[in-house]
TrEMBL record:
InterPro entries: bL21-like, bL21-like_sf
Origin: domain of life: Eukaryota
Name listed for the protein in its UniProt record: Large ribosomal subunit protein bL21m
GO cellular component, one term: mitochondrial large ribosomal subunit
Organism placement in taxonomy: Eukaryota, Metazoa, Ecdysozoa, Arthropoda, Chelicerata
GO molecular function: structural constituent of ribosome
A Pfam family the protein falls into: Ribosomal_L21p
Family: Belongs to the bacterial ribosomal protein bL21 family.
Amino acid sequence: MPTAYPWLASARLRCLLKCLTWLHESDTYKPSSLLRTVHALGAGTPRSENRGLCSDATRLKPVIIPSPAAPRLSVVEGSLVSSSNNVEETRRVSESVNAQITEDTTGRLFAVIYIYGKQFKVTPKDLVLVQADMLVDIRDSLRLEKVLLVNARDFTLLGRPLLHRNLVRVDATVVEKPLSQTKQNFVYIKRSHYERHHFYQYPQTILCIDSIKLLRDVDAPSDGEDSSRSRFSY
């Protein structure tokens, strides 16, 4: 009767072979055709040879083909350059970026800023709705210091995680401090005549982005300006 486990059948044949061999070594036993038949089936072969009775599918192993190695990239002052000819490529990229900053040919800039746990992609004259009551008054000027990214026409400066406050400046003005639309929370308990209607609003702050400026070359040393935040820095 065929079995789904080839190793089990092989073990049975080996056990039968041992019994027949013991009988063969005794004086009162003569070899029979059954012993020769068992040897012909491969039960007396080593275990490594018996593995051939298993199907090829049970002996297949996954072959891992290594993927081609991608070129290593290094970050140099906000610009990505390849590891090959690193020094020359870094110098060329830095000179090109610094020339655009000096000549003011960067084009229209946009930035990604971080305010009260959320990120906003902004350009000059954009309005930003902040779901919080910021401690400022209307018409106050703010400097948004948590800048994650600045993009120009030909290059992008990435922060790790933030860009230095002496490299980029994003200014904004508070234009309005409204309340959100009225929201209702209805509470009802069955068979108790308990009904409550709760109405609430959230404070908001609307900012207008005045300007986004790059203040210095990307590889210029910091001027040592105090990094402490004032009341009007976020």
